[in-house]
Design brief:
CATH architecture of the largest domain: 2-Layer Sandwich
Organism: Fervidobacterium gondwanense DSM 13020
Order of helices and strands: EEEHEEEHEHEEEHHHHEHEH
Strand content: 15-25%
Family: Belongs to the ROK (NagC/XylR) family.
Number of domains: 2
Shape: globular
GO molecular function: kinase activity
Keywords: Kinase, Transferase
CATH topology of the largest domain: Nucleotidyltransferase, domain 5
Distance between the termini: 12 Å
Number of helices: 9
Pfam families: ROK
Structural class: alpha/beta
Helix content: 25-40%
Strand order of the largest sheet: 3-2-1-4-7
Length: 309
C-alpha cells in the first residue's frame, strides 16, 4: 500500500511516494515552492510533483505537513507566516480536486510526531511526546494513540513553554520560550552574542557559525561552546520534564537538526530530566533521538494519511 507525503516549506517542498509496510520512500523530489506566484500555482506544482513521484503507481491518499495554524478536519490553512496570502485557504480541497484523491493537511510539528508513531522511534507506543529542534522548536503529542490538538486544533505548542523567565525574546513575542534558547536560530544568536567576549572561540573558525559548530566546539572543550550547550540542555530539560509531568509519555523523541549533536546533548539531558521529574515518573519514559533524520518531513506527512484512513 502506498501513500504520498508532502513536506511543505516556504522555500522548497518535498514530495515522496511511501511504501507503508516498509516505511521506505520509493521516489522523492524537491521543488521550489515559489510562494510569490500565488497559492493556485503552488498547488498546481504540488500536483505535478505528486504525479511525478507516483509515476502511475496507485496510492490511497496524500498527506501534507504544513507550517502554521491548520484546520486539519477541513484541510484548511488558517494562517501561516511563510504563506502571507494563504488566509483560510482550502489547501486539502484544492489539491484533492486536481488529483482526485483524498488529501489531508496537518501542522508540520504534529506531522512529525505522527511520523515517529508510524515509522520512527514511537512505533508501538501509544503515548509519545516529540520535539523537533530546527529553525524553531515544534512539538506534537500522542496520547492513547490519538493526536492531541486542542479545541481549535492549534494546541501542543511545545516550543512556546517558558523555560527561562525573563530570558531572550522569542519570535512569538514572549520571553524565555524553549524556542528562544534551544532552536538552531537561538544557538547561532547566542554564539554571535558571545563573540566579543570570546573572540578566540573555536566556533568562529568554523566554515559556518551554526548549532553544529557550537556543539563541535563544546565537545572539544571550548568554553563558549560548553556554556551555550549547557544553557540549551538546561532549557530542554525543564521543558521535557514539564511535558513528562503533563502527558506521562512512554517515549520522548527529539529530532531536527540540533538533535544531530548526539551524545553531548542527550547524555546530560537525560541526567537533568531524571533529577527534575517527580520520583513516581523516574522510570516511566525514555528519551531518544529521532531515527528519521532528513526523511522526517515526508514520512510525517505520509503518516497523516494513515492516521486518518
Amino acid at each position: 500500500m502506498y501513500v504520498v507525503g508532502i513536506d511543505l516549506g516556504g522555500t522548497f517542498f518535498k514530495v515522496g511516494l511511501v511504501d507503508t509496510e516498509s516505511g521506505e520512500i520509493l521516489r522523492k523530489v524537491e521543488w521550489e515552492t515559489r510562494v510569490a506566484e500565488g497559492k493556485e500555482k503552488v498547488v498546481k506544482r504540488m500536483a505535478q510533483a505528486v504525479l511525478e513521484v507516483s509515476n502511475g503507481e496507485d496510492y490511497i491518499g496524500v498527506g501534507i505537513g504544513s507550517p502554521g495554524s491548520i484546520d486539519h478536519d477541513n484541510g484548511i490553512v488558517r494562517f501561516s507566516p511563510n504563506f502571507p496570502d494563504w488566509i483560510n485557504f482550502n489547501l486539502g480541497g484544492t489539491l484533492s480536486k486536481l488529483l482526485n484523491k483524498p488529501v489531508f493537511v496537518e501542522n508540520d510539528a504534529n506531522a512529525f510526531v505522527l511520523g515517529e508513531k508510524w515509522f520512527g522511534a514511537g512505533k508501538g507506543h501509544e503515548h509519545i511526546v516529540a520535539l523537533t529542534l530546527g529553525t524553531g522548536v515544534g512539538g506534537g503529542v500522542i496520547s492513547h494513540g490519538k493526536l492531541i490538538t486542542g479545541k481549535d486544533g492549534i494546541g501542543t505548542e511545545l516550543g512556546h513553554v517558558i523555560v527561562e523567565p525573563n530570558g531572550p525574546q522569542c519570535g512569538c513575542g514572549n520571553y524565555g520560550c524553549l524556542e528562544a534558547i534551544a532552536s538552531a536560530t537561538a544557538i547561532r544568536r547566542m554564539a554571535l552574542e558571545g563573540q566579543k567576549k570570546f573572540p578566540e572561540s573555536e566556533i568562529f573558525s568554523a566554515e559556518e557559525i551554526n548549532a553544529k559548530a557550537v556543539f563541535d566546539a563544546a565537545r572539544n572543550g571550548d568554553l563558549l561552546g560548553q556554556m551555550i550547550a549547557e544553557r540549551v540542555v538546561n532549557a530542554l530539560a525543564i521543558g521535557v520534564a514539564n511535558f513528562i509531568h503533563i502527558f506521562n509519555p512512554s517515549i520522548v523523541v527529539i529530532g531536527g537538526g540540533v538533535s544531530r549533536a548526539g551524545n553531548i546533548l542527550f547524555a546530560p539531558l537525560r541526567e537533568k530530566v531524571r533529577h527534575l521529574v517527580m520520583p513516581s515518573f523516574k522510570d516511566t519514559y525514555t528519551i531518544v533521538q529521532s531515527p528519521l533524520v532528513e526523511n522526517a518531513g515526508i514520512l510525517g506527512a505520509a503518516s497523516i494519511v494513515l492516521q486518518n484512513l
